[in-house]
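Quick review question:
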């Protein structure tokens, strides 16, 4: 993560407004008016800068530097999808499901960090990430469509599907931490079949679409 400072332009605007107010009240042309305008402008700027519109320091993800251009591209692609997942999760009122999504997001970012450290895992993680991240987004979209007409049965099916996604991400992270390869394609097929049978996904090419770029 890198730190980035966000500076507001409001203090300059407020200082200019204060100088203009002094000019309108006292006029401009005398030494006093210039001194008063300068003092008020500087004072307003300092107060606004420190108290009203202070600089904000935020942390932003730095560009990946794995040494492998394809791995870096996949990491950036996955980060963008995770940002979409976070925005979608913000709209979910159900606490249990929201916590599942938060766990999936945090685990995903750890996986991406491992990929940056171990770009040789690209071939296995490309399939994994291009399947499960879109699957999570599709589940969230399905959940959003049913927000105003969600019965307990459908809600539980979505939670069950998210548990399957959550488990897969933890399995993948554990494997990376142990420097071993695992094949989760059977779990992917089971999840896809479950989602289709429950009517949560209707894209017949969903499974293949995740690997078309390999």
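Suggested answer, residue by residue:
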């Amino acid at each position: 993560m890198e730190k980035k400072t966000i500076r507001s332009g409001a203090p300059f605007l407020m200082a200019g407004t204060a100088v203009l107010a002094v000019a309108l009240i006292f006029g401009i042309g005398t030494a006093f008016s210039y001194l008063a305008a300068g003092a008020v402008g500087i004072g307003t700027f300092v107060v606004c800068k420190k108290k009203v519109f202070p600089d904000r320091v935020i942390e932003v993800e730095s560009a990946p530097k794995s040494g492998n251009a394809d791995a870096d591209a996949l990491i950036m692609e996955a980060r963008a999808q995770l940002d979409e997942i976070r925005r979608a999760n913000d709209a979910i009122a159900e606490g249990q499901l929201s916590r599942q999504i938060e766990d999936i997001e945090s685990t995903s970012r750890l996986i991406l960090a491992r990929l940056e450290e171990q770009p040789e895992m690209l071939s296995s993680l490309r399939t994994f990430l291009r399947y499960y991240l879109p699957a999570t987004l599709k589940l969230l979209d399905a959940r959003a469509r049913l927000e105003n007409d969600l019965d307990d049965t459908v809600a539980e099916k979505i939670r069950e599907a998210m548990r399957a996604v959550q488990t897969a991400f933890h399995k993948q992270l554990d494997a990376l931490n142990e420097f071993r390869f695992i094949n989760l394609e059977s779990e992917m097929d089971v999840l896809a079949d479950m989602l289709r049978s429950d009517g949560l996904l209707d894209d017949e090419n969903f499974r293949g679409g995740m690997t078309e770029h390999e």
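Why it works: The longest strand covers residues 2-6. The chain has two domains: 2-58, 65-209.
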